[in-house]
Amino acid sequence: MTPSHQTLAARVAIVTGATAGIGLAIAADVAAAGARVVINGRRPDKLDTICADLNRDHPDKRVVSVVGDCVEQRIIDTLFDTARRAFAADADCIVINAGRGLSGSVVTSDPAQWEEMIRTNLLGAARLMRTAAQRLLGGPDPAAATLDARWTSRPRDIIAIGSVVGRHVSPFSSMYGSTKFGLHGLTEGLRRELAPKGIRVTLVEPGFVVSEFQGVAGYTDEWFKGVLDKIGPVLQPADVARVVRFVCEQPAAVHMSDILVRPTRQDYP
Predict the structure, then answer these.
(1) N or C terminus: which one in the chain shows less Cβ crowding within 10 Å?
(2) Virtual torsion, Cα 86, 24, 13, 177, nearest 10 deg
(3) Is 216 a residue whose pLDDT tops 70?
(4) What is the mean pLDDT of residues 80-107?
(5) Residue 161's closest CA among 144, 140, 186, 142?
(6) Half-sphere exposure of residue 125, counting CA atoms within 13 Å on the CB side?
(7) Per-position b or e across 34-70, b if 16+ CB within 10 A of its CB
């Protein structure tokens, strides 16, 4: 009989953008569920604090960190190498979470920030997807890889954190949304490429989540209050983290490929 869920005790995860918000919540949740985790971010002091907190009840040092910009290939490679070195096992759950927002449309957003956002949300995600696929397959060419005979007992996941505005166009954030449309295309293309090899590629599309994201993206306190008044209560990072853990806990032959999660009262986008 097929088990209803897969334990995370044998899993090794990589989570980017893990110093706050959704990334931090995902790292904490999968670590609490038994996974060993490599977290990434650009704030070394913050990463040190998070590692200390998450390892407090785990003398086996369940969480380690890699500081740096995960758009850079050197940092991406270091994430996988660190997993192998720290846990004597290869990462088999890669969560592509690092990203940045930007308020405004093509007409109203700040064009000086476009390139950095595209670099992070699209190029960084694509590089991490490429490296994750090659590492999980054991080589650079998906067509040449054979189906691992252990695949039904060895789940392997690449999970991208997208956004509801990458599926439903929103005028107030259309420039940011365009990068998430692109991410969604990359994710679905990768899913179709890797599914025959027993590798699950999942897109998680949150609606409105309260975190540092809004401030960094340039949304005002007045705008934020208006959102809460209209559709609150909104999602918390832990709500998205539970979805990610649910994906990882499925038996290897079960794939939740595309999950859109909104606050109950969020009608649009």
Answers:
(1) N
(2) -140
(3) no
(4) 96
(5) 186
(6) 29
(7) ebbbbbbbeeeebbeebbeebeeeeeeebbbbbbbbb
Taking the C-alpha atoms of residue 150 and residue 173, their distance in angstroms, rounded to an integer, is 43
Query: For residues 180 and 203, is the Cβ–Cβ distance under 8 A?
Result: no
- Residue 67's pLDDT is what? 98
pLDDT at 1 over 50: no
Does the pLDDT at position 5 exceed 90?
no
Does this model's pTM top 0.90? My answer is yes
pLDDT surpasses 60 at 98 = yes
- The strand pairing partners of 204, in sequence order, are 161, 259
Query: Can you point out the beta strands (E) in the chain?
Result: 12-15, 36-41, 63-67, 93-96, 157-161, 200-206, 258-261
CATH superfamily, domain at 12-259: NAD(P)-binding Rossmann-like Domain (3.40.50.720)
CA-CA distance, 100 to 124, in Å (whole number)?
11
